[in-house]
Amino acid sequence: MAEADFDVNQQFEAEPRVHDYVVDADVHVTPPPTFWAEYLSPQFRDLAPKVESEGEFDYIVFEGQRRAVNLMASQAGRTFDKYKNAGKLADQRLGGWMVDKRLEDMDRDGIDKAVCFGGGPLGTGNLELYLDSFDAFNRWQSDFCADSNGRIYACAYLTTVDVDQTIAGVKAAKARGDVAVNLPAFPQSVSQFTKEGAVWQAMTGDPQGARQYRDPEFDKLWATLVDLDMPVTFHLGARISRFRDKTNFLCDLPMGKPAMLEMINIMLYSGVFDRFPTLRVGLIESGVGWIPWACEYMDRAWEMQRHWTECAIKHPPSFYFDQNVYASFIEDPVGVELRHKPGAKNIMWSSDYPHSETTFPHSHKAIARNFQGVPKDEMAWILSGCAEKFFGLK
């Protein structure tokens, strides 16, 4: 079938469910770039990206650059052999930004509720515009979720340039009805801010920066999250996937999963979870099969090395994973098999709609593959109960 004849918004027949209630712990939105002109603060709206079309591509025009629309965040509706890296906005499935279409896709795919992770910010060299774009994207996403009849919930992406600003973002998210906030893997550094790295710094922060989440300045952030009963998530470690680079993309992709352990350990070994025992932290899209191995290794290493390192945490590392840390996976039968190992108590399933790893429109087939032989009550915990507890959906 020629690309011109391919309908990314083709309709799919609903497939049989293998479980009667599913909460998707990680979905995404892909709003068209035109939304920025409406949601940015008034003083920045004239600077918003614009869209131009030419030939087989739409282009985003912003701050003197013209770049073809990247599609790797929106492959839902395509078979694997039809994946494409760049194209037109019309090549994206409408459920990425139209809530009625999203709900139709959820119904077809057997998804009852979902937690939505957006993104942004703008890839700008203007720091004030950059910070404002976090708020703009979060407000758009909250509006999207508010129209879902209580089926989709938002996670706000926050900047960590200034802790007081981060706290203000937490409070604003709570007031909008968002159920979580997402932080970059490491605190951001204004000194390292560049236009070229702006978007990735929202995900990774500055791994080599002087500030770390173990520092006392962040305790007031953890206290605010606990007081508001808001969980915090990380969606990427220090490793990024070069998603425009077909040579390195497959090499990079798996490396970003276990890399999320680093920021958890920075918090864990410095006693953050002793000081804030009810703080909930989620590793989203991390996969989970590596966690039991990591916890076994960390428990053993801590027991051997804790005296000379003067590590004063009260419990072995696996204890904090079972108490404070949650993680989501898309397809990870090894992780499901190891669900009873120390540290693996809190695992959640997700479809990653509409990204390139999504199980849509065959999510229940994927669930069947991953949960062979798992008792119904244990399936229920991983497919709904754990996410409901983590995000406070009950």
UniProtKB/TrEMBL annotation:
**SUPFAM superfamilies (UniProt xref):** Metallo-dependent hydrolases
Q: Give the record's keywords alphabetically.
A: Lyase
Gene3D superfamilies, from UniProt? Metal-dependent hydrolases
| Chaperone recorded as keyword | no
InterPro entries to which the protein is assigned, alphabetical? ACMSD (IPR032465), Amidohydro-rel (IPR006680), Metal_Hydrolase (IPR032466)
- Would you tell me the protein name for this molecule? Amidohydrolase family protein
Which positions fall inside the Amidohydrolase-related domain?
A: 23-393
